[in-house]
Amino acid sequence: MFSSTIIDWRQHYPQLASITDHAWIEALQCMEPVIVPKGMQAYVTGDECRNFLLLLEGNIRVYASGRNGREIVLYRLKPGEFCILSLVSFLQRSPFPANAVTENQVRALVISREVFHRTFSRSPAFRNVMVNDLSNRYLDIINSLQELAFDPLDVRMTNLLCSRFREANSTSIEITHSQLAQELGTTREVASRMLKDLERSNYITLSRGIVSLRDNEALGRMYKLGEL
């Protein structure tokens, strides 16, 4: 394991850093560092799940594809988070049920399936961390499914943009109409129409590959719009 990541993983995963039992220490010694370039397909639906990641840098988009070719983002894996579908695949010994692609360069530590199962069975502390995260993330996914089923598409677009502006801590985000359509599981034409409506309402300004807030108060107004 490359030494430069030791502090990194402890900062991102404090719940694991506090584990001191022998099984976890042994697992640490078996981890391997990986660097994956942007745009790499990590998993395709039905692939065997072989590794569990401790993500240190970059994002991985996990999404489902329909028969009509449309995509919808299930979640984005960020540093400090565990991939819930990898965890489910490991525990159920089942194939990965979605697709995953790197959105930028990814740096991570890899736990092999064999080491994961050994540690899960021998380390109560590690097992508790995994089960607690599974429970919390399960609720997040239920909330996302409720939004998908019951919230109007324009409200979901507004909430998505609010979330992206806040995550970026910026008044401008680099994202295309097609990417937003993928996030929402709709067509590019529908996404473009909703964005144009927001622009005409003076919430945002659109330019090629960039969405910007119209002014400093626009994010608050958009957030209230999403609550309606």
3D structure, described in words:
With 228 residues, the chain is α+β, with helices and mostly antiparallel strands. Helix content is 50%, strand content 22%. The protein has ten helices and ten strands. The chain has a four-stranded antiparallel β-sheet with strand order 2-6-4-5. A three-stranded antiparallel β-sheet has the order 1-7-3. A hairpin with a 5-residue loop joins strand 4 and strand 5 (71-77). The longest helix has 27 residues, at 124-150. Residues 1-5 have low confidence and may be disordered.
Summary keywords:
228 residues; elongated; alpha+beta; four-stranded antiparallel β-sheet; disordered N terminus
Question: How would you briefly describe this protein structure?
Answer:
The chain has 228 residues and is of the alpha+beta class. Helices cover 50% and strands 22% of the residues.
Topology:
Elements: H1 6-12, H2 14-17, H3 22-30, E1 32-36, E2 41-43, E3 51-57, E4 60-65, E5 71-77, H4 84-92, E6 99-102, E7 106-112, H5 113-122, H6 124-150, H7 153-168, E8 172-174, H8 177-184, H9 188-200, E9 204-207, E10 210-213, H10 218-227
Helix pairs in contact: 3-5, 5-6, 7-10, 8-9
